[in-house]
Design a protein that fits this description.
By secondary structure, the chain is of the alpha+beta class. It is built from six helices and seven strands; from the N terminus they run αβββαβααααβββ.
Length: 181
């Protein structure tokens, strides 16, 4: 093999490693999938929360965020209200009073799973678990962004901890598919 061919292979390998390293610092998008939607736009009462995943732009990679039903509800709440930091008390109020969460899954044809009863101590645990599962999914996707940068927790001037998702977010709606007889 001549010298020019070796340099060309080396240059291609270096370009590949640089591109891979740069893509490791790209923030993935946190995507929550809603099912049983009557319309494919907007979050409406009666929908269900099916899954959450991290989506990387290039190459197109999707990594699931493995959460329980209750964990998906907390994740969805933080995604839907990502524009503002949420305290545990505010998350609790949203989950108990927002019509979306009160009627969760009402559009489904099967048995409706009982909505979990959230308390402030349990919500603290769910936020910690969400951070942990996002960290696992980010490691699996090869991202070098830390979990603390993805789900930020900060103390306010009154020593109340507030939490916010610091990733691009998206909610995907899947319409109800009716079976014909």
């Amino acid at each position: 093999m001549n010298t020019d061919a070796r340099y060309l292979r080396l240059a291609v390998a270096v370009d590949y490693l640089i591109a891979k390293r740069q893509s490791s610092f790209v923030r993935p998008r946190l995507v929550v999938v809603h099912g049983n939607c009557r319309h494919e736009t907007g979050c409406l009462p009666g929908e269900s929360i099916e899954s959450a995943h991290l989506q990387y732009p290039s190459p197109e990679v999707t990594v699931p965020v493995r959460l329980s039903h209750a964990g998906l509800i907390v994740c969805d709440c933080m995604v839907r209200f990502h524009h503002t930091p949420l305290s545990i008390g505010r998350i609790e109020r949203l989950l108990t009073s927002d019509p979306f969460y009160r009627c969760l899954g009402a559009n489904s044809f099967g048995q409706i799973e009982d909505a979990p009863k959230f308390t402030r101590p349990s919500l603290r645990v769910y936020v910690a678990r969400l951070r942990e599962q996002i960290a696992k999914a980010m490691r699996e996707g090869g991202s070098l962004v830390s979990a603390e940068d993805a789900l930020v927790s900060e103390a306010t001037d009154s020593n109340v901890m507030v939490h916010r998702i610091n990733l691009p977010v998206e909610i995907i709606h899947r319409a109800v598919k009716l079976m014909r007889s």
